[in-house]
Amino acid sequence: MRTAFRLRFPSLEGLGVGSSLEGLGVGSSLEGLGVGFASCLLPPVPLLGGVRGGFCLLPPASCLLPPAFCLLLLVSPATAIAGPVSQEQLVEIEQLWQNSTHALADVNCSTCHQQQESKALIFKPTHESCVSCHDVEVETFLLGKHGIRLNEKLSPLTPAMAKIPMKESALAKQMNCNTCHDVHAVDTVVAAVDSCLSCHNDSHSLNYKQSQHSKLFLAEGKLPRPSVESVTCATCHLPRQENDVKVFVNHNNTYNLLPRDRMVKEVCMNCHGMEYSFNSIFDDELVEANFDSSPQLHLETIELVRQLEKRRAKQNAQD
């Protein structure tokens, strides 16, 4: 037994297949089904999302139609932006999605590629699509260096605009959600380190791979969530925060940079003591080396506080 769902899609005219599905491995015609409609036959499997707004919300693997049929609609002459997409690329997109965190959360194609109100196709989703699920992440991203131009309705920031060294190959990149998070293979482990090092070419960034933090990250790479349970670029610069409802990531990469003691309170002291943390974060050479050893700096303020505590303890003992 098969259940028929209606799938809304643009006209097939201009796609090279006329008004028939013949040649796409379907073998039936659109005639008599109504203008702009076809029936999508799905096997009797548990529904992960049902059908909303005319777009199928089931994973591609559950549909009897070949991936080329649905994905071809995204690259028709009327909507194409990135140029023609081969059958191999379409299959690769599906495979990437199947192994992504989006697939685990039952988030599929139409969640990002369909405008919520008009139901129109979104060929290249932006941060405005991401905000429907990741509201805190997008809001904080727009407040940081990476996203502040978008917040002001300007063109996206590019590494070419940066004052610190950036890799030549990355200068033309436009900073948005998709810059760090692959559009289909959504992987926070990659975004936690590799995405950063694909652009940043300064000493602090490059020295991460030789740091104790990096060694810990690599050693724990087989953990279920290594980017959470070890120390990465994102651990310090995009710290995880939580409230009574959920855990979220502060994507304002400027938030922890100044003043420096904010980094100590928000991040360092989650693992290290106060004195070690303050001495480390104010040791400029150690910061540039990405904390590859213990701090050589000893802040006078810490020593004054220690002496004050000793006097208070002595006074309390006498009382």
Describe the protein in words.
The chain has 319 residues and is mainly alpha-helical. Among the domains are: 131-257, no CATH class; 259-318, no CATH class. Helices cover 36% and strands 7% of the residues. The protein contains 18 helices and six strands. A two-stranded antiparallel sheet has the order 1-2. Strand 3 (51-52) and strand 4 (55-56) form a beta hairpin. Helix 15 (260-266) runs antiparallel to helix 16 (274-281). The longest helix is centred in the last third of the chain and has 19 residues, at 300-318. It is elongated and about 80 Å long.
In short:
The protein contains 18 helices and six strands. The chain is mostly helical. Among the domains are: 131-257, no CATH class; 259-318, no CATH class.
Q: Strand count, sense and closure of the main sheet? A: 2 strands, antiparallel
Number of strands: 6
Distance between the termini: 86 Å
Order of helices and strands: EEEEHHHHHHHHHHHHHHEEHHHH
Mean pLDDT: 74
Radius of gyration over C-alpha positions, nearest whole angstrom: 26 Å
* Lateral arrangement of strands in the main beta sheet: 1-2
Return residue spans where pLDDT drops below 50 for at least 5 consecutive residues.
1-83
**Total number of helical segments?**
18
Shape assignment:
elongated
Helix content: 25-40%
Fraction in beta strands: 5-15%
Broad structural category: mainly alpha
